[in-house]
Amino acid sequence: MDKEESSVESKECCTRSELVSEDGKNLKSVLCQRCGSKVLCPGMAVYSEKELFLPPMRNKKAPSLTEGSGDNLSAHWLVDDMYTFENVGFTNDVGRIKYLICADCEIGPIGWHCLDDKKSYYVAVERVDHA
């Protein structure tokens, strides 16, 4: 099975009840879809529904796509301290936003952080794997 089939399969196999504990935290490790690096350990983030716009997934070195393309995503893992992450990088500021990327392979954005709120780091559930 190739990497694409694996990531599609993992997205389809995990329902919300398989990912979120009774107290709203992540039951499984949160991993980079591309390289498998651990982004968050189990129990370290809270499930949150907030609609956020994220540009298309790409490697940091890839050319920029047209402005305005991307996804409005509403299912996220919310982390209140940047030091909770096992492995995450941040882009340069884009207005008042920093996007979260995998620190190992630099694919992203996998999440979103507004500089006005020092306690809210969002990782899009659809843009990561769970194991």
TrEMBL record:
InterPro entries: Mss4, Mss4-like_sf, Mss4/transl-control_tumour. This is Guanine nucleotide exchange factor MSS4. GO terms for biological process: post-Golgi vesicle-mediated transport; protein transport; small GTPase-mediated signal transduction. Interacts with RAB8A. Guanine-nucleotide-releasing protein that acts on members of the SEC4/YPT1/RAB subfamily. Stimulates GDP release from both YPT1, RAB3A and RAB10, but is less active on these proteins than on the SEC4 protein. Might play a general role in vesicular transport. GO terms for molecular function: guanyl-nucleotide exchange factor activity; zinc ion binding. It comes from the Eukaryota. Keywords: Acetylation, Guanine-nucleotide releasing factor, Metal-binding, Protein transport, Transport, Zinc. SUPFAM superfamilies: Mss4-like. Coiled coil: none annotated. The gene is rabif. GO terms for cellular component: cytosol; membrane.
